[in-house]
Input
Amino acid sequence: MRVLQRWNELSADLYCVKMGYGLSLKSALIRTYAENLDTLFPSEVDNFLYSSHPTLQRRLDTITESLKKNEEYMQASEKNIEELKVWKLDISVDQEEEAEKLVDDEHPDTA
Output
């Protein structure tokens, strides 16, 4: 049961990162652990047997890793968006040239 609870906590942390609150969550976790005087580095055995939450270090590592992945994803997405803009611009130019050809073909005297 505790394993499921810890997994749920990590899933919630990842959702916060996905929603853009990763850095705020890291800060809040550190403050919460410090204010509650919780054990910052419990042994793996103690954590496994008694805790319903992952260790602070595990949560911070998971959040940091997810933030890095999100940053890489955002950079790739921005690159893809720029490529799409260029591609759309190329199509627009091609369509405009085709339209001009059609007009010229239909009305050769206006050219």
